[in-house]
Amino acid sequence: MVGGGSKLAARARVRVIRPGLTEAEVERIRRERRAPRPTQWDYLHLEGLRRALQGAFDGLPSARGPVLDVFCGTKPYLELVPWRPVWGLDIDRHFGRADVVGDLPLPFRDRSVGVAVVTQALHMVDDPVGTVDEVARVLAPGGYVVVTVPHLFLAEGDFERHWSLADLRRLFTGWSDVRIEGIDGPGAALAFALGRIAMLGARRWRLARPLFRPTVLMLNTVGAALDRLAAPLARRWPHSLLLVARRRPATSPGQS
Q1: Angle formed by the axes of helices 43-58 and 209-229, to 10°?
Q2: CA nearest 179: which of 151, 202, 145, 152?
Q3: Quick one: how far is CA 129 from the chain centroid?
Q4: Could you report the per-residue pLDDT of 61-100, keeping only the tens digit for each?
């Protein structure tokens, strides 16, 4: 159990009530995340996540299913996961792709999962320490967890926590083979922030809509170039963080 602390402390649980999306909306979201285009305002962000997750999965040749996609949303990365079956858990039916609806404690048996995936969700949960403890409980000894969280970003509300690399490492104290790496850099973060402003402006003002795609294409091009030209800054201030960790294998009798 990791100590709470201000950033990792649990807060009062908030019940979220969201209407279900249409099938067309769900498929659009999945498509945009699975194969983002440079004219999307969040292209660099989503392409970085896709690339990082693919690399993480490819780097776990000894991993085995079943896979638990925790707070799965639309399950946008299902096709990237090389193990089966994949069970999607979410807090409601809003995104229409959850196999199981639930929250903490996770509605799965002890040691029933080979790999757990938590993408862009852990920074929003009410109890991050409890969530990580539950992931450890359902993982088989030696099983892996793959996590992504935003690092440089503008929070949309108090429900989103800003975590540093040290915060994330502390959250996974006691795990084995903990590896944390950055995804993209401040150029991608800047393109994401300005692109979101452009997206909101295009939604509000009809006259701005013809300029939206050229604007975000320019932002994505400039953001990618900045990260390439200033690679040391990208390593120091990544846009997002990827964590891969392993649940400690079970000890034999007589071992500590």
Answers
A1: 50
A2: 145
A3: 16
A4: 889 999 999 999 999 999 999 999 999 999 999 999 999 9
Q: For residue 149, what are the β-bridge partners?
A: 241
The number of angstroms, rounded, from the C-alpha of 200 to the middle of its chain's C-alpha atoms is 23
Which domains does the chain possess?
5-186+238-246 (3.40.50.150)
Is residue 144 within 8 A of residue 116, CB to CB? The reply is yes
Query: Identity (one letter) of the amino acid at 130?
Result: G
Question: pLDDT tens across 213-226, in order?
Answer: 999 999 999 999 99
Helices 43-58 and 186-204 meet at what angle, rounded to 10? 130
Contact 56, 80 (CB under 8 A): no
Q: In three state form, how does the secondary structure of the chain look? A: CCCCHHHHCCCCCCCCCCCCCCHHHHHHHHHHHHCCCCCCCCHHHHHHHHHHHHHHHHCCCCCCCCEEEECCCCCCCHHHCCCCCEEEEECCCCCCCCCEECCCCCCCCCCCEEEEEEECCHHHCCCHHHHHHHHHHHEEEEEEEEEEEECCCCCCCCCCCCCCHHHHHHHCCCCEEEEEEEECCHHHHHHHHHHHHHHHHHHHCHHHHHHHHHHHHHHHHHHHHHHHHCHHHHHHCCCEEEEEEECCCCCCCCCC
Contact 243, 171 (CB under 8 A): no
Question: How many other C-beta atoms are found inside a 10 Å radius of the C-beta of residue 79?
Answer: 10
By the 8 A CB rule, do 50 and 37 touch?
no
Q: State pTM to two decimals.
A: 0.92
Task: Report the DSSP pairing between strands 139-150 and 240-246.
Answer: antiparallel
